[in-house]
Amino acid sequence: MFQYQYQVHKPITTAHLAQTMTLLSLSAFELKQQIDSELASNPALEIIEERRCPHCKRVLPDNGACPICSRPMNSDVDEPIVYVSPMDDFIPRSDYDDSDYSEEPFSPVTDDLTSYVIKQIAPELSKDQQLIAVHLLTNLDDDGFLSVNLMDVARYFHVPISTIEEVQKIIQLADPIGVGSVNPQQALLVQLEVLSDSITIPEHAYEIIKDYMDLLSKRQHPEIAKRLKISVQRVEKIVEFISDNLNPFPARSHWGSVRNPSSPDTNVYHRPDVLISFANDDQKSQLIVEIIMPYSGTLQVSPLYKQTIKETDAELKDAMKGDLEKASLFVKCLQQRNHTMQRLMHELVMIQKSYLTKGEKFLKPITRASLAEELEVHESTISRAVSGKSVQLPNKKIVPLAAFFDRSLSARTILREIVSSESKPLSDTEIQKKLDERGIQVARRTVAKYRAMEGILPAHLRQAP
After folding, report:
1. CA neighbours within 13 Å on the CB side: how many for 371?
2. Which of 186, 223, 281, 327 is deepest in the core (most CB within 10 A)?
3. What pTM did the predictor assign?
4. Poorest-pLDDT segment among 21-25, 97-101, 261-265, 450-454
5. Contact in structure between 121 and 170 (CB atoms under 8 Å)
6. To 5 degrees, how large is the angle CA 422–CA 414–CA 430?
7. CATH code for the domain of 228
């Protein structure tokens, strides 16, 4: 495992911060590629062999005790044990009964994007609309955008363009939201519309995306501020909101690498970045949180390389010192990345312990902003740490780390309960009222969206029990 000593009082340079933020945004798989690249290009970096616990065989920290076996016998069971674990150090753990868990929507990815979306929307579509939807969905590019012209599709099916646009709108509201758009701008506008149901959207956010997308993509914030007659600082706040909450490339949020959606290794949820389990498989004991690293051993600056510099000609020393500085910076940034992930996961597990042990309906509605405030970091730090990562829960299901912040998850779970216990099929308006009675306030169209995401038919197609 990669070990580190984190010092809180050291000033962080701009270069250090920038590289740390880059590493923080990477999944374990992407981090492996980055470390491979650094090792291949920098002779001052090396990995040394790890030490293992004689009892549980886990990798030990440098000059340290096993994070599991050495814990105090009277340790607080409410406090999770959080540590960094190498990817190849997974220890098979026996399954336990997960009957207390509801069927949850984030099961490992086994479908392609077309199948994943069509399963969500098919119950709401007529047979003719289903044919159109399949045609559109089989013509998506790697980013989730339509690669066909809607007018050409209308001609192909001999229907008005409005019919095609209606099906497209249904697709866009499925998960991942914005899929089936024609470009990033349209995807962002759809996401903004959906997001407005649950949170307050900053003033001018819609206008910036709709009217100034070109300037936004070029980061010409002063020009946007000038045209909107507001301050540059305000524009930057709005842009930060857009960056943290919206995704211009919808398919990348679920399909393949965030930076390489064409990667053949697309089943990203089969390879979790964090593993959560009970100590000794005892559900009454502490939760163990393993943050997965892609190597065994300790990454460090090579002592031999340092010694070699002292014995090297002056003309080569400058280049070798550059290697040492880069290696040292990379190791420090990796340590900072791990420290941030540990703090994040400790806080998340403490907040969402009931969700982890009892099921979806116990998910607490937290936001990235509130967690950032609790950890005294910027909200964008939380967003980077969460982005593109997945977690294996104690019941062995793999979910996106973002699921810990999903405001809709508990609402969708309760919606399923309402529908399963209905004496006669309830309309979306009636479901909305029942949700409101249970303290969940959402718009009727949000109920329709949640119902579609759960694969529940509209009232007129559901049969009374």
Report:
1. 27
2. 327
3. 0.56
4. 261-265
5. yes
6. 50
7. 1.10.10.1330
